[in-house]
Amino acid sequence: MPKNIEDIIVSSEKKSIRDIPIPDSRRKVNIVDAFSPKETETPQSSSQSRFRPSMTRGNFGSLPSNRRYSQKSIWIGAGIALVVLVAVIFSLRTSATLTYIPKSVAMNFTKDVYTAHKNTENQLLFSVIKLSGEKGLAAPASGEVKVSRKAQGTIIVYNENTQAQKLVKTTRFQATDGKIFRVGSDIVVPAQKTVDGKSVPGSLEIVVVADQPGDTYNIPLSDFTLPGLKGDKKVYARSKTAMTGGFIGTEKAVSPADTAKAKESLEAALKTELLGQANAQVPADYILFPNLVSIVYEDLPQSNQTNSGATINERGNFYGVMFKKEDLISFLAQKKAVADAAIPVDISALSSLDLSFVGEPKEDLLSAEQISFQVTGGVVATFVVDEEALKKDLSGTKRNEEDAVLKKYPGIVSANAVLRPFWNNSFPTDVSKIKIVKNTQK
Questions:
Q1: For 51-103, where are the E strands, in sequence order?
Q2: Cα separations in angstroms, 223 against 150, 168, 201, 298
């Protein structure tokens, strides 16, 4: 009976076949045994443990290659997922900012003369604002003087006709008590107009003077008719102030020198005060120039008579010429051949120009059909870009098509666009995500 090799016993001086070392290259590693602590070995297994490779920190990394590849795949997948997540977040926050420099041209004026009109179409139009104010200043008396003075006051004339009503100098206004007052110059009362679907009478504020001197014409507020219009009830007037100043008798006299000094101070104060009031009432889209105003001053009766002096009183009737800013800018730009009507421009420092009358203006500018004025100074006209239209034209446009869009806007000198995220190659289709920034050219 053949014997098993395991039954072969060698002599004690010779080694068992189990004691023959196996080359490291032919050993198989058991991952469980690699982590089994040596302290748990039993005497019975000590002979077998000699055939196990020693697992130390030096050779712990000798894990199966498929495990290493599995861990690497997890990290790569996580990285790709993170990149995709970041890309999605940025794609939801797409935006574009286009910064442009507008075209600008310097405009200089040296007493250049132009004409503005009241109602003529296709011309520069002007409007007039009218205000009145009164002030008084105490002056020392130097004696007494006999006076005969007429009462006067302010009324508002109304016109309910569809045509303007012209009234000549000395037109009569009759108060309810029969007393007659007259206008001191020719006037034109505007026709009625329609406001919010309702007819509103035209109106004009004027000063009237009593037909005769004396205090009997010092009357309170009243309604007035116009006898010269033969019963036309569509033109009438009402008091704005009481009629005062009528007097016949002796009063304290102020020397001509003191009177002139007081009037000079009063007129300067009235001009400043009335100009401030006018500027406060000018609409936001209009402009009033301080040298395009006319103030007509009237002497009012003295008041506060005492033994030591009296108060010198003065009224100022203010007329100021106003232009619509947009109209004036366009007019001046065309006169200087800077731009035509199709290309709007803006002048931010329009008020720095000096506009003044050529010659003496009419006392009552409300009745003027045209005025001549001169312009002096220098400003910069900047071309206006329709930024909302530009946004619409840019929406959805690819970056390489940007120049073609900008060519439609001759008011742009140069522009630079920044798209976000940086890899985006098109403007957002949503115009709210497109920002336009104007950068003033230096």
A1: 95-102
A2: 19, 20, 16, 24
| Strands, sheet with 286-303, edge to edge from the N-terminal-most edge strand | 127-140, 309-324, 286-303
From residue 108, alpha-carbon distances to 245, 337, 349, 353 in Å are 51, 12, 13, 10
Count of C-beta atoms within a 10 Å radius of residue 46: 10
3-state secondary structure of 205: strand
- Paired strand residues for 298: 315
Instruction: Provide the 10 A C-beta neighbour count for residue 407.
Output: 9
Structure tokens at 286: 């209009």
Q: What span, in angstroms and rounded, lies between the C-alpha atoms of 432 and 299?
A: 63
pTM check: above 0.90: no
Token reading at 338: 């800077």
Half-sphere exposure of 335 (CA within 13 A, CB side): 17
Distance CA 438, CA 428 (A): 20
Lowest mean pLDDT among 64-68, 113-117, 360-364, 371-375: 64-68
Query: What is the chain's length?
Result: 442
pLDDT value for 68? 59
